[in-house]
């Protein structure tokens, strides 16, 4: 199977030596997304819900650049620095997956890049 790299200016550039997304076969792997506004390159201000919406907007842009959409997400992993944010994050997240939400894991971590309090990665079926 051939590996294909996917990139878009409609989502933040990778912060290191990795791709925004990679597809192989019928799977698309979207790297962990932070709540960075791609037009400014800066972390969005606001509560966890605002940041969750930004992360998922970035993820949507990457999926679309690869010819997919969020309906094709089969698994996400959410990293939070405070599980106390779970309920508010969950409410915002649910608006992006109103029907047949993907499988998911949510874990609390000690820290995330750029001091973010949330990061989400995803696997999509193409």
UniProtKB/TrEMBL annotation:
Pfam family for this entry, one: Ribonuc_L-PSP
InterPro entries: RidA, RidA_CS, RutC-like_sf, YjgF/YER057c/UK114
Protein name according to UniProt: 2-iminobutanoate/2-iminopropanoate deaminase
Family matches, as Gene3D superfamilies: RutC-like
Any GO molecular function: deaminase activity
Annotated PANTHER family: 2-IMINOBUTANOATE/2-IMINOPROPANOATE DEAMINASE RIDA (PTHR11803), 2-IMINOBUTANOATE_2-IMINOPROPANOATE DEAMINASE (PTHR11803:SF39)
Protein family membership: Belongs to the RutC family.
Annotated Gene Ontology cellular component terms: cytosol
């Amino acid at each position: 199977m051939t590996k294909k790299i996917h990139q878009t200016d409609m989502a933040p550039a990778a912060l290191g030596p990795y791709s925004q997304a990679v597809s192989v076969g019928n799977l698309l792997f979207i790297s962990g997304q932070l709540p960075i506004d791609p037009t400014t390159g800066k972390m969005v201000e606001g509560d966890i819900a605002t940041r969750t919406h930004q992360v998922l907007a970035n993820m949507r842009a990457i999926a679309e650049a690869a010819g997919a959409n969020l309906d094709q997400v089969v698994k996400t992993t959410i990293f939070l620095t405070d599980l106390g944010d779970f309920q508010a994050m969950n409410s915002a997240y649910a608006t992006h997956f109103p029907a047949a939400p993907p499988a998911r894991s949510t874990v609390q971590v000690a820290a995330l890049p750029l001091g973010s309090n949330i990061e989400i990665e995803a696997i999509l079926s193409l």
